[in-house]
Design brief:
six-stranded parallel β-sheet, single chain, nucleotide-binding, 1217 residues, alpha/beta, DNA_helicase_UvrD-like_C, 48% helix
Length: 1217
């Protein structure tokens, strides 16, 4: 009779009725008969779920199953409950996502992942044996030495080693390997309780009538598979399961669990949040005094269990200071400072009280800042204060512990105005750090283990509600926000959440392929390093104490090395995109690196395009630096006069060659007529100089063609042209993250979009662009048209959901004084040129701060000039910003080498504590009459020109305001504006009318503290990473790090040599490269490790460019000798093998004997692209030559031995004769 439940029988109503009648009869016959029928239904997919969903007598069976649910781990694997859980979890996992609420869909995957991972953990728990155990605290606080090892205690047994236990099973389930039998039993009980809860959840879904149709459709599909909407169009080698790929896309819905962490083992109900400053304090005490660390640890654990007393819950700030701040006494003079805060709970549907620890301070350090902190927090409103001071008393009087309160989510209250905080500069900085800079981390098991192992890792910290919303967004999104608002953080946490959700999932699914792309190599490297440290910290949760004891604190002190010099093989990435494997993901790289990988796939090395794109970037690729050095001096003076090369180059790339309309132009550029007719309001840059700009563009194109150069727009157009006619190389990715999107061309967005097969997997982030008319609204509209037209992008053929748009308006790096001043500049741009900028809400600050200072007597009071500059010279993070190189040289001629002097372009992407904007208006090409247009923003302004009467006349002010915005927003603490021109008066009046600046004289200038050598060194490394070598030299000299200053000089000499290519004579070029090579060789002689290798390599490269083959050979030999003795474990991947296939277009280049003799000079004196390849070829040949030499010496020695014996024998014979 069991065939009654076959799919063919129950497809019609009569068959279904017969099956249900039989099920009624079996149910009446007893549990054993019913169980046999149920097990039969469970043997086929979807039948059990469908039958039970329509059976009106199911409740009795469900009640019996839940009552009989196993209570012992040994019983669960063979139970009927386990079989039901497996069947139902798979069944509902296949339900279409659009039929389910987001929280239901999330819970379905969560329960499936947990049930899959729970079974092997239960098996492992059953096999573990314990003969005794010590307390956790006894093990971690061993005073005998600095290692976490077990004490030798009499009459106390040690736990047996967990032989053959796979800790990764526990890590994937999110639990800790138990160290005692009691802990193992407790863990088994907790796992079984969660499994029972999961089964109850699935039974509740079977009762929901709105899901009946979907449950039936799984068994009897009417239309094709739901998963087809995500079926990617891939090559035949990349066949994927639709169900697997569906699960990968759904991972984004389950990141909340993946990024949420409970307290460490043994802690109580109160969740403990530790600030980064408190983490630093804990690490310091851990190293310095184990007894103090033990006291702190126990005090935190005591608070987590709600044991509040007069000793550990004493109010630190005054009763009128708003939100209470508490201190817990640990020793006579040591205090732990904390607050009862209220944050969103794990489910996101409620708020819960937590303990937020700010730091560990000496009694003398408890200053007025805590009163200010409480007053500032009180601005969040009455409801927030009520929730912070609420205490949940125990129901039974015999229990003294306080439990954390829980509240429903509250609507945000309008911020309450607060009285000004009269604090010193030091206290203001401390308050800013507590409210803005500090990140708060859960005191989890991973956090505790990082303290034990003393590892320099990063931890997942609490996000703001808006940041959390972005991370959990299930569609593509656009995120706008100035630097410091958290854009990159949300990207990083989304990548981590998806990766961790996949790792924790028990479902066998494909690894999600995620790529983070940005233009900056520095940003890509830093994000990857941060991601790696986050993964390392999470992995520590699964380590045993013995393993933690063996770990050593890492201290890496690397010298300055340009990341762009590192060979491709050292980046652990293949040369071609199609060769990427799962192990490479998540992938963090620059847009240029990604474009090269795609180009290596789609361009043949035998045709001109292949050679074109594989050529040496320093010789053939036109960057802005190449443009200013090799092109700008050769434009006719009557065209380039009074124009900014930065803005001109951006107009060439962003509008004439990189805008959307160029995709339909035959040559990939706007023709003159189209460019001249662009509307002034949306493209105000050069609005009344379009003819001149296009003349310059034609000069640029002609020079570029003669020099066989190409730029970023040429590269993107060439790639897109090929991709129109052939399939995308390799496997497309699941999630794409583009940071600083405003730095890319609009046509780059089409290229990047084709990387991602998931229409909901795109994340674009950026800010206002100072040098172009880039707008996110344009990007959004362009990509919408791309999706609609299906231009080889949406390979799945699905109708994508509308991307979400977010703005992060809270700035966490700066304060109100600077933010309000910068926002007023944006307001002016929006007022006059609304089509050139995205319409955003004004930025908000967390704390107030000093307003920018405008010096009004600069050209009158010359007596205090020298004193003023002397004050400025001793601050490391003070940058003097000037408009261009000519302005910098003029400043040095007048004042001398005072501190860091950078152009506005050089400061792009960087931040400084203090910024001095010098003669911005004086050096402006916009005259006073046009600057008067800003007075339209002043109430009662008197005379102000009429903008509508001649819009084109004032168009240049728009780009000036954007540059002014860049200058102001480079500062985090202070802005000084020094300008002696009357052109500055309109902006000064505008700011003064809004009370957004302080008008001061030199006599009122406040001196600033002198920076320490450590601060100079830190900032020197930062400047070096941005290739600001002259400024880095200055910092290292001030830090007395003369060797590092010499390294920066070598890099600067190489930059000078590179800039001479195409400008200076060939002999001058060689001379410049020879000087740079000598400098690198000198640096290598005193360096160690990777630095030594890289400096010798750089030296050899420069000698090749200088045409000195002998010195190049010697440098390469030193490189190999250093590599052989380098303790860094560098493998042979550093050396790329030369391939004759690359040189097939140049057969003369691989004649015997040609490589070591003629090839270097040929490459240096011709346009043949191959300098970098020659380097690899030379290394390979030298290795072979070295081996030949060794073989020769061995054979010579053998021959010498044989002949010596023969000569001795002949001599003996002669003697006999």
């Amino acid at each position: 009779m069991l065939d009654l439940f076959s799919k063919d029988r129950i497809v019609n109503e009569a068959g279904l009725r017969a099956a249900l009648r039989h099920l009624d009869a079996r149910s009446s016959s007893g549990a054993t008969a019913l169980q046999a029928t149920v097990e039969h239904m469970l043997s086929s997919p979807h039948i059990f779920a469908y039958i039970i969903s329509v059976w009106d007598r199911r409740e009795a069976m469900i009640s019996q199953i839940m009552t009989d649910f196993p209570t012992k781990s040994q019983e669960y694997p063979a139970s009927i409950a386990r079989k039901m859980l497996d069947n139902l979890s798979m069944n509902f996992l296949a339900c279409p996502a659009e039929s389910l609420a987001m929280d239901v869909s999330r819970d379905i995957t969560h329960h499936r992942c947990f049930s899959e991972g729970a079974l092997p953990v239960l098996f492992a728990l059953n096999s573990m044996e314990f003969s005794g155990a010590r307390s956790f605290e006894d093990e971690i606080f061993d005073k005998s030495n600095d290692r976490f090892v077990k004490k030798k205690v009499r009459n106390r047994n040690r736990p047996k080693a967990h032989t053959s236990i796979d800790r990764s099973l526990f890590v994937r389930l999110g639990v800790v390997v138990p160290l005692t039998s009691e802990a193992a039993a407790l863990l088994s009980t907790q796992i079984l309780a969660k499994l029972k809860n999961a089964l109850s959840f699935y039974f509740s879904l079977l009762r929901r009538t709105e899901l009946a149709g979907d449950i039936k459709a799984l068994l009897f599909p009417i239309v094709g598979e739901y998963a087809k909407y995500v079926a990617p169009e891939v090559s035949s080698t990349d066949v994927e399961s639709p169900t697997d790929r569906l699960n990968v896309y759904q991972l984004v819905q389950h990141m909340k669990t993946a990024l949420y962490f409970d307290n460490a083992d043994g802690f109580g109900e109160w969740r403990i949040l530790i600030s980064t400053q408190a983490y630093k304090h804990l690490r310091e005490f851990r190293r310095a005094d184990k007894n103090i660390f033990k006291i702190i640890f126990k005090k935190i654990k005591q608070l987590s269990n709600g044991h509040f007393s007069d000793d550990n819950h004493k109010r630190l700030n005054g009763p009128d200071a708003g939100i209470p701040i508490y201190d817990a006494k640990m020793t006579k003079d040591l205090r732990l400072v904390y607050q009862i805060d209220c944050v969103p709970d794990k489910d996101g549907k409620s708020e819960r009280q937590v303990i937020k620890i700010y730091g560990i301070y000496m009694d003398a350090q408890l200053d007025r800042v805590w009163d200010a902190l409480g007053s500032h927090l009180a601005r969040k409103g009455r409801e927030y204060r009520r929730r912070c001071i609420f205490r949940k008393r125990p129901l039974l009087s015999k229990y003294s512990a306080i439990l954390p309160g829980s509240f429903p989510l509250a609507d945000p209250e309008p911020e309450c105005p607060g009285s000004p905080l009269n604090l010193s500069d030091k206290d203001n900085d401390h308050l800013h750090s507590l409210l803005v800079l500090e990140k708060y981390v859960t005191f989890s098991q991973a956090f505790l283990h990082s303290l034990i192992a003393d590892q320099d890792v990063q931890h997942v910290f609490m996000l703001t509600p808006q940041e959390q919303k972005i991370v959990e967004c299930t569609t593509s999104c656009y995120v706008l926000g100035r630097r410091g608002t958290g854009k990159t953080t949300t990207m990083l946490f989304k990548i981590l959440g998806i990766q961790r959700a996949w790792e924790m999932s028990a479902i066998d699914m494909l690894k999600p392929r995620q790529i983070f792309v940005t233009k900056s190599r520095v940003l890509a490297t830093r994000v990857e390093e941060y991601f790696t440290k986050l993964l390392e910290s999470l992995a520590l949760a699964g380590y045993t104490l013995e393993e933690l004891a063996k770990m050593k604190a890492r201290s890496v002190q690397e010298g300055p090395v340009d990341l762009n010099d590192l060979p491709e093989s050292q980046m652990n990435m293949p040369m071609k995109y199609s060769e990427l494997e799962d192990k490479h993901f998540p992938l963090f790289l620059t847009f240029d690196r990604l474009a090269k990988m795609i180009a290596a796939d789609i361009f043949s090395k035998k045709d001109s395009a292949g050679v074109f794109f594989n050529a040496d970037a320093h010789d053939c690729f036109v960057t802005y630096d190449v443009f200013t050095n090799q092109y700008w001096p050769y434009f006719p003076q009557n065209l380039s006069q009074n124009l900014n090369p930065w803005l001109v180059f951006s107009e060439f790339m962003g509008i004439i060659k990189g805008s959307e309309h160029t995709l339909t132009c035959p040559e990939g550029v706007l023709d003159r007529q189209t460019y001249l007719l662009l509307p002034h309001r949306s493209n105000p840059n050069f609005a009344n100089q379009r003819g001149i700009l296009y003349d310059m563009f034609e000069h640029y194109t002609k020079m570029k063609r003669q020099r066989r150069h190409h730029d970023v727009a040429d590269r993107t157009h060439a790639i897109l042209k090929v991709l129109r006619s052939q399939r995308f190389p390799g496997q497309q990715i699941d999630y794409l993250y583009v940071d600083e999107a405003q730095d890319n061309l609009l046509i780059d967005a089409l290229f990047l979009r084709q990387l991602c097969k998931n229409p909901d997997g795109l994340f674009w982030a950026g800010e206002i662009s100072a040098e172009s008319s880039f707008r996110f609204s344009d990007l959004k509209a362009f990509l919408y048209r791309v999706e609609q037209q299906n231009i080889s992008v949406n390979s799945a053929g699905a109708c994508p959901r509308q991307p979400a748009m977010f703005q992060l308006a809270i700035n966490y790096r700066s304060h109100g004084g600077i933010i309000n001043c910068a926002s007023s500049v944006v307001e002016l741009i929006t007022k006059f040129w609304p089509n050139t900028i995205d319409n955003l809400r004004p930025e908000k600050e967390v704390v107030d701060g000093p307003k920018p200072v405008f010096f009004t007597d600069w050209d009158k009071d010359t007596v205090h000039h020298q004193q003023f500059w002397l004050q400025m010279r001793d601050k490391a993070e003070l940058c003097i910003l000037v408009r261009d190189n000519a302005a910098r040289q003029k400043f040095r001629d007048q004042v001398g080498q005072i501190g860091l002097i950078m152009t506005l372009y050089e400061s792009k992407g960087m931040e400084f504590d203090d910024v001095l904007l010098y003669n911005f208006f004086e050096d402006s090409a916009i005259d006073l009459s046009r600057w008067h247009i800003v007075l339209n923003g002043v109430d009662g302004r008197g005379y102000a020109p009429n903008f509508e009467r001649d819009e084109a006349r004032y168009a240049g002010v728009c780009s000036e305001l954007k540059l002014l915005y860049v200058g102001i927003t480079r500062a985090k603490k202070n802005v000084w504006i020094v300008d002696k021109s009357d052109r500055s008066e309109p902006m000064r009046k505008f700011w003064t009318s809004r009370n957004q600046i302080e008008n001061c004289t030199l006599r009122t200038c406040v001196p600033h503290p002198v920076s320490t050598p450590e601060e100079w060194a830190y900032f020197g490394h930062s400047l070096f990473s941005y290739k600001r070598y002259p400024q880095a030299i200055h910092c290292f000299e001030r830090a007395n790090l003369h060797r590092k200053a010499k390294v920066c000089e070598a890099y600067q000499l190489r930059e000078v040599a590179r800039s001479s290519v195409g400008v200076a004579s060939l002999s001058d070029q060689k001379r410049a490269f020879n000087v740079a090579a000598d400098a690198f060789s000198d640096c290598a002689a005193t360096a160690t490790g990777i630095e030594k290798l890289q400096y010798y390599r750089n030296s050899a490269d420069c000698y090749v460019r200088a045409g000195d083959d002998l010195k190049a050979t010697k440098a390469y030999l030193k490189f190999h000798r250093s590599r052989a003795t380098c303790p860094c474990g560098i493998d042979g991947g550093l050396i790329h093998h030369f391939t004759i296939d690359y040189y097939s277009p140049y057969p003369s280049l691989y004649r015997p004997g040609y490589v070591l003799d003629v090839l270097p000079r040929t490459i240096c004196s011709s346009s043949v692209p191959g300098i970098s390849v020659f380097h690899d070829n030379l290394i390979t040949r030298l290795k072979a030559l070295s081996q030949i030499q060794l073989d020769f010496e061995k054979r010579a020695k053998d021959a010498e031995g044989k002949f010596t014996e023969k000569f001795a024998e002949m001599r003996r014979q002669l003697d006999v004769r």
